[in-house]
Prior knowledge:
Blueprint: E1 8-17, E2 20-30, E3 35-39, H1 46-53, E4 61-66, E5 69-70, H2 76-83, E6 86-89, H3 101-112, H4 118-131, H5 147-159, E7 165-169, H6 177-194, E8 197-201, H7 205-211, E9 214-219, E10 222-227, H8 229-233, H9 238-241
Parallel strand pairs: 3-8, 3-9, 6-7, 7-8
Antiparallel strand pairs: 1-2, 1-4, 4-5, 9-10
Keywords: ATP-binding, Nucleotide-binding, Transport
GO molecular function: ATP binding; ATP hydrolysis activity
Protein name: Putative ribonucleotide transport ATP-binding protein mkl
Amino acid sequence: MERNSPVIAITNLHKAFGDNEVLNGVNITVNKSEDVVILGRSGTGKSVTIKCLVGLEKADQGEIKVFGIDITKLNNNDLNTIRARIGFMFQNGALYDSMSVRQNLTFTLKHHDKTISKEAIETQITEALQSVGLLEAIDKMPSELSGGMRKRIGMARTLIIKPEIILYDEPTSGLDTITAREISELMVSIQKEYKTTSLVITHDMACAKLTGNRILILKDGVIHAEGTYTELEKSKDSWVRSFFI
C-alpha cells in the first residue's frame, strides 16, 4: 500500500438485485484514521455498500480497494486475510444468545487466532471490556443486558481483534437519545485510543454530527453530496438540507 493512499477507495461501484439497481456508480475514499459517515434514506444502498466492501455481497462492476488491494479480484483465502483486519459492528450487536459475554468474546478470538493462549484470551477480553466500560458484565448472558449494553459488548467483540478499520451499521438504532449519544461518544473515544479508520452507516443525525469528520449522502445509487456536518447543513440543495430538519 502506497504511503498516504486511502485505506478504502471505492470506484464506480454498481450493484443490482434483479431489476433493482441499488448502487449506480458509487465513489468513496476514506483516509487513515478518518471517520466517514454515509447517510441516506432507507433502501438507498448504505448497508449494501459496506457489504460489498467486505465481500459479503459481490459487486457487479467497479473497483473496491482496501489497504491498496482490489478485493473484487481476490479468492476467498486472500479475502479472509483482508477481513481479519476489519471489524464489523452489526446493527443488533449480533451476540450469540446461548453464550455468556466471556464466551462470545472467546469465540471471536479463537476464530481469529486458533493458536491463542488462555492467558492472552483473558488479557484481551479484559482490555476490550474495559474499553467499553463493561468489565462487570463479563459473565452475564446477552438476555441480561439492556439494548445499550448489548451494543457496547458488540463493540468490544469488534475491538478485540484489533481491527484497523471498523464498519458500523446503524450503531445507534433502537436506542433512546441518551444511550445513543453514549454509544456515539464511545465510537469517538475508540477511534482516538485505537487509531482506527471508521465508516459509519447511520440515519441518526446526532451520531453523524458527533462521529463524522466527513459525511457522504447517498441518493439514487450515487454519492449526491459530501462535506462536513456544518457544510451540508448550510447546503443550498433542499434535499440535502432535509436531513438536518
